[in-house]
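[scheduler] slot 2 assigned
[scheduler] job type: sequence-to-structure, two independent chains
[scheduler] chain ordering preserved from manifest
[runner] begin chain α
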Amino acid sequence: MNDEEVGDIDQGKFIEERNVMCYIACIYTMGQTIKNNKIVHDAMIKQIDMMFPPEMKEPVKATIEQCRGVAKKYKDICEASYWTAKCLYEADPANFVFA
C-alpha cells in the first residue's frame, strides 16, 4: 500500500481495492469503532463527542446515523468499513474527517 492509494481518502478519493478497504478497517479498529468484526456506530458517536470541535459534532453524528445501515450489507469487515467511510464522505464532504 502506498500514499497514492490512501493519502487522499479525506478528500473523497476512495480506490475500490481490497488493501484500501482493509486499511480503512484498520484505522477504524485503532479508533476503537470496530468490535468483534462489526462497526459499532455508538462507538463512532462516542469518538465524535470526545475528539471533534463543537461545531462539527451534530452534523457528523447526523451523517453517522444516515450511514448506519451500510455496514449491515457486508459480511466482510473490510468492505463494511470502506463503504461506510464512503457513505460518510458522500453524505457530508465538508465535515468528513479520516485519520
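[runner] end chain α
[runner] begin chain β
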Amino acid sequence: MPGNLSNSVVPTPDELSAAQTGRRERKRQQQLDHLADTAWALFEAEGYEAVTMERIAEAADVAKGTLYKHFPVKEALLRHRFHRELRESQAGLVPVIQAEAPGAARLRRFFALSAEWSERHRRYLLPYVQYRLAEPRHPNDDRQRSGLERIFTALIADGQEAGCFRRDVSPTVLAVYLEFLYLAALLRWLTEAASSLPGEFESMLDVFFGGLEVRV
C-alpha cells in the first residue's frame, strides 16, 4: 500500500518553480558565456577593432537580435569575460594573498597580481574601462559588478581587524575610494601617462595608505 504522500519526496509547486527558474538561469548563463567566449576568440584572431557585432552573431550561430538583447556593444562582451575571469580566479588568489601579513602587504600583493593580468590584457582594457565608467550605475545589478569592491572590502576589513588600518571609516566606503584610485592609476597607464603599471599602483597605494599630508 502506498505510503503517506505528505511524507514522500514529492516536490511542491514552489520547489518545481524554483527548479525551473534555476534551469532557465543556468541556460541563460551558458548562452552568455558562449557569446562572450565566441567574441573573445574573434578578438584574439582578428583584432578587437576589426570584429563587428554581426560577425560575432554569425560565429556564435545566433540571431543578431539575440546578441544585442544580452550585449548591446562589444565592450559589454569584454565586461562579461573579464568579470567571469576574476570570479573564477578568486579561489586561486586567496592562498597567495593570505600568505602575506594582513593590511598593506596583502593589498600590495593583490595589485602586483592585478598588474600582471592587466599587462596581458592591455589592448582590451581601455575600451573596457571607458565603457564601465560611462555605464549607468545600478547598484543592485550584479552584472555590472566586477567583484573588485568585494575583494577590497575584505582585505581592508582584515587590515582593520589586525590593527593595521584605522577603523573610523567603514571598509565598504574605503573600498569604493580604492576602486576609483585603481581606475585612475590604470587609466594613466593605458593612456601612456605612466610607463610602468606596477610602479603606478605602488604610488597610488602609497597615497592611499599615507594620505597627502606630510608627517613629521
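[runner] end chain β
[qc] chain β: The two ends are 87 Å apart (CA to CA).
[scheduler] slot 2 released
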